[in-house]
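Contributing new complexes? Match this layout with iron/sulfur cluster.
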Amino acid sequence: MAGLYVHVPFCERRCVYCDFYFVTTAKSHAPFVAALRHEIAHYGAEFGALEPIGTIYFGGGTPSRLVARDVEAILLEIGQRFDTSAVEEITLELNPDDASLTYLRDLRAIGVNRLSIGIQSFYADDLKFMNRSHSELQARGVVDEVRTAGFDNFSIDLIFGLPDQPSEYWAANLERAARMEVPHISTYSLTVEPRTVLANRVERGLVSELDDEEVSERYLFTMDYLESRGFEHYEISSFSKPGFRSRHNTSYWRHDNYLGFGPAAHSFWWRGLPAGRWANVRNLKAYEAIVGGRQVPLDFREHLSLDDLANEYIMLGLRTSDGIDLDLLETRYGVDLLDEKLDDIAQLEQAGLIQPVSGRELQLTRRGRSVCDSVVLRLAL
Ligand code: SF4
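Output block (do not edit by hand):
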């Protein structure tokens, strides 16, 4: 089953680390919603009959800047153009400052059944450093609100490795999340992306990044702590209680098809070779104008060979606790990894970074997870 992704490019303000596409100046969301509906109709005509939809994900930006009526209009458009009879999961990313009980109840009533909440930290100092739009109070209160509104399936995002964040803050953030019995946590280490406010501060010497060892220590602590509290570490950044894994993200890691709508959204469709990946223009006004002129708002399209897909499978598979299935790699992607990378596999195993599981599967070890990118580089074709 395919997934649908809707990119909602509106934010209240600019978080210092963010390099996603968004605007903070939109006065009305109506032109965006109208353009989005046209785009959904266009792709529905081409892809709607090919595969039923399993998951829908509203990401951003900040999707919770949209009123529930707009979210409903988008879902209705999707329902008219695609086979949504088997949809299991509709996720919406929510910022704590948007979490009024009325809004949350409205979202629940129109079919949203999972929330991904951008808490990032429960501490005012951290939130101020990141320039988040919500307060400490809102960060601490949002979980009760979403539960009261009827959501039991939700995730919270937390960021570690902030330059001046005392390590006790990070431990306390995790403890608080565990005490609240949240069913899913995504943890990210703060990375300095080019052309962000944070990168500018680092360049000017106003902020210094944590060194790799400290980041790695916090990551290892995170794994130990959350696993001891009953979370499954099912992907490098994702921890879930049993039964609460993200189905939408899991479908990306499995190489399932997905379509992305909205500015800067990416799509992937594999039905015969070459497979296709394409992305929309990264500009709201251009997106609205192009779609308004009944054109496709394409930024780029690329074709992926079987080797490209095999490399992606290795990269994505290693991120997950399932690891890489060597038989699948051979039958689906035509690659005999043991033949191609025998020496690298032996060296990585000896270094304690990967381990074989039941003979025909390879997984990152605990230590390997903190250097996932370098392992992927060694195994790439
Ligand atoms: S709310 Fe999210 S998308 Fe918006 S600026 Fe902050 S991190 Fe970026």
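Reviewers usually confirm one structural detail per submission. For this one: The pocket of iron/sulfur cluster is lined by residues 11, 14-15, 18, 20, 22, 60-62, 95, 118 (CB under 6 Å).
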